[in-house]
Design goal:
503 residues; 2 domains; alpha/beta; single chain; five-stranded mixed β-sheet; extended
Length: 503
């Protein structure tokens, strides 16, 4: 007799077989612990069925029948699908369609590339024909390093130094950015990523003290200062106006470089403002923008044979209407530093005076016709007076912070700033200029004149109050922070701002 499996399954369900399966799935231990006694009393009939060999064989057959049936159906469907796909792929129509699709894609890609290349070529031709661009290129071609000596510049380091010369308050740097002549990794601001941070060493010399700073700068010009050393320099190494011993200076510098782990980092060398003199000329008043021009020679405070002049055009206006800034320095003094840097043999970002870069950064955020900046050193005060995109002239005041330092710092500071204020008024009156609302203050001497007892008098403003740079300086968190001065906070802010202007 043939048994209908479906009928049998329904019959067993009607007699509560599912409940019996529940008992079979539970472990014997748990079943005996929780339900065995009660089940024995309540369902003796179902218990006997579950023990029957016939029942177990029937259930097993039902399960096997279902599994075999499902597998057969799946295999049949799979074979049918595979057969259909294979048949479609082997057909000529399918092959023709695929070929046409590929041809269409290739055509579109070629058209897109061609369009893109034509656009680039068009822009390039347009850029090359631009007058400002041509002027920029001529500037690059005429560019000379301030020392005139042979120097081991890496490509990016030369670029950074070049940018430091042309970035400040001019349309030239905008042209640099517009035409993207340089490596984007060194100039373009991108997302903060420590992988792209650049380690840089900053060297600052003033008042017979040499400061070395190890820092990291990211692509957004965020500066993190990692270590600082300050070293006194004897007079037989650097005199008042001359590097007396380049070999010894190089050895001193290398000790700090090794200490701060700057052996492969580029260096930015900043010299105090007192070693430079600045005068601005109208381009129309000069026969030629050259050191040989008599008017340029006449403004030099040094002997003609010992004068080095660096020129910087204040704008990209026509020659007849523009201003030319001339920075004077002693040739033998600069040569002493360049000889030292050649011995150190590290890439150099630039060798720059401190105050002019700070001045140009200030004029970007002030609206006054005239801006005044004083750079206080120990024995001299450098005064800069000028405006944005216009004249800038420097003046040397024959006194510094050391003349006024006493036990009563409040009186000392007041006396110094009273004298500075009077000197500025006299100079501006002679030039028919009106004094600005604020006189900006920087320099190594500033750290010696102000503290918790004495702040700047009214009319004077510390450049630290201006957001000229984004930097962090936490001496307590530094492994190396060796100073001979009580404070270098003002110098740290100045150097961070100078570096931001240069890179």
């Amino acid at each position: 007799m043939k048994i209908d499996p479906l009928f049998l399954e329904k019959y067993i369900s009607a007699t509560r077989v599912k409940f019996v399966e529940y008992f079979d799935l539970i472990s014997a231990e748990k079943f005996l612990r929780n339900k065995f006694k009660e089940s024995k009393k309540t369902f003796p009939f179902l218990k006997n069925i579950s023990r029957a060999e016939k029942y177990k064989k029937i259930i097993e057959r039902i399960k096997n029948f279902k599994i075999d049936s499902e597998l057969n159906n799946k295999i049949k469907k799979s074979k049918d699908s595979a057969s259909l796909i294979k048949e479609i792929k082997s057909s000529n129509s399918y092959k023709t369609i695929i070929s046409q699709i590929n041809q269409f894609k290739n055509k579109k890609v070629k058209q897109k590339k061609s369009k893109k290349n034509n656009k680039r070529l068009s822009l390039k031709k347009k850029d090359l024909s631009n007058i400002n661009f041509q002027y920029l290129i001529s500037k690059i071609n005429k560019f000379r390093f301030i020392s005139g000596s042979s120097f081991k510049f890496q490509k990016n380091d030369f670029i950074k130094y070049l940018v430091s010369k042309y970035k400040i308050n001019t349309q030239l740097f905008k042209e640099f950015k517009k035409y993207q002549l340089f490596n984007k990794d060194s100039l373009v601001k991108q997302k903060n990523n420590k992988k792209f941070d650049q380690k840089i060493g900053v060297v600052f010399y003033s008042d017979h003290n040499l400061i070395f700073i190890s820092l990291n700068i990211n692509l957004n010009n965020r500066i993190t200062i990692n270590g600082v050393t300050e070293i006194p320099i004897p007079g037989n190494v650097i005199g008042d106006s001359l590097v007396e011993d380049s070999n010894e200076l190089a050895n001193i510098a290398l000790d700090s470089i090794n200490l701060l782990d700057l052996n492969s980092a580029p260096l930015l060398v900043v010299l105090s403002s007192s070693f430079f003199n600045i005068h601005t000329f109208k381009a129309s008043d000069l026969k030629q923008i050259s050191q040989s021009d008599k008017k340029i020679q006449a403004k030099s405070p040094y002997l003609p044979d010992n004068t080095l002049v660096d020129f910087f055009r204040m704008s990209d206006a026509q020659i007849s209407n523009g201003f030319v800034r001339a920075t004077y320095s002693k040739k033998d003094f600069i040569k002493g530093w360049t000889d030292t840097l050649e011995m150190i043999d590290l890439p150099v970002i630039g060798l720059v005076p401190a105050a002019p870069l700070i001045f140009d950064a200030i004029t970007k955020i002030t609206l006054e016709e005239k801006t005044v900046l004083i750079d206080i050193e120990s024995t001299v005060t450098t005064l800069l007076i000028g405006g944005p995109f216009s004249e800038l002239n420097s003046h040397k005041l024959p006194f510094g912070s050391s003349l006024y330092i006493s036990n009563n710092l409040k009186n000392s500071g007041k006396n110094y700033f009273d004298r500075v204020s009077n000197s500025i008024k006299v100079i501006m009156k002679d030039n028919n200029d009106t004094s600005p609302l604020n006189i900006f203050v920087m320099g190594s001497g500033l750290d010696n004149l102000i503290n918790s007892e004495f702040d700047l008098p009214k009319g004077f403003k510390n450049i630290a109050e201006l957001k000229l740079s984004d930097f962090s300086y936490s001496p307590k968190n530094m492994q190396i922070h060796e100073l001979i001065s009580n404070s270098i906070d003002s110098r740290i802010f100045s150097l961070a701002s100078i570096l931001t202007s240069c890179v």
